[in-house]
Amino acid sequence: MTNTSNNATARQIILCVGNSMMGDDGAGPLLAQKLAAQPLSDWLVLDGGSAPETETVRIRELKPHTLIVIDATEMGLNPGEIRTVDPDCISEMMLMSTHSMPLNYLIDDLKEAVDEVVMLGIQPDIVGFCYPMSPAVIDAVAQLEQLLRQNRWREIAELVDTSEQW
Question: Which of 61, 67, 119, 121 has its CA 20 to 30 A from that of 155?
């Protein structure tokens, strides 16, 4: 788990989640690497990898105003599409998970310490051990990086409730 900023009093945190050995599930770690290479001002970026719960103590101590959780998320969309996902709907969606703890547990736990928790999902194409990341997801990570740099991440469309599909 990597801290890609030195901001010890972060009021805004980005928690990137995923496993870079699992194809498109590496979207979060790829974004964390990009943001480490050129840090965002006013944001602390954490690479939570496949065990993001290891960052909860630190996040609770920092008590940020905003926490953005970014992960490859099975949403039934075209590969590479990015959506804001209502954290309250995560468990209902039966999202694929390569993580040691379902993200809804992590998010529910952090809601007590964080004013605003936002989940951003990137629709994967292929998640499998040793698969390369798909071009659509690589492009989505670059697009999301730009939206974060331009402080336009709130413009990302919300995932429409399609619970009847699940």
Answer: 61
Report residue 73 as tokens: 């998320």
Q: Which long-range contacts (CB under 8 A, 24 or more apart) does 162-165 make?
A: 162/76, 163/89, 163/92, 163/93, 165/76
Distance in angstroms (rounded) separating the CA atoms of residues 50 and 98: 7
Q: pLDDT value at position 162?
A: 54
Nearest to 9, CA basis, from 42, 38, 50: 42
User: Across the strands, what pairs with 85?
Assistant: 119
Tokens of 93: 């969606």
pLDDT surpasses 70 at 164 = no
Name the 3-class secondary structure at 116: strand
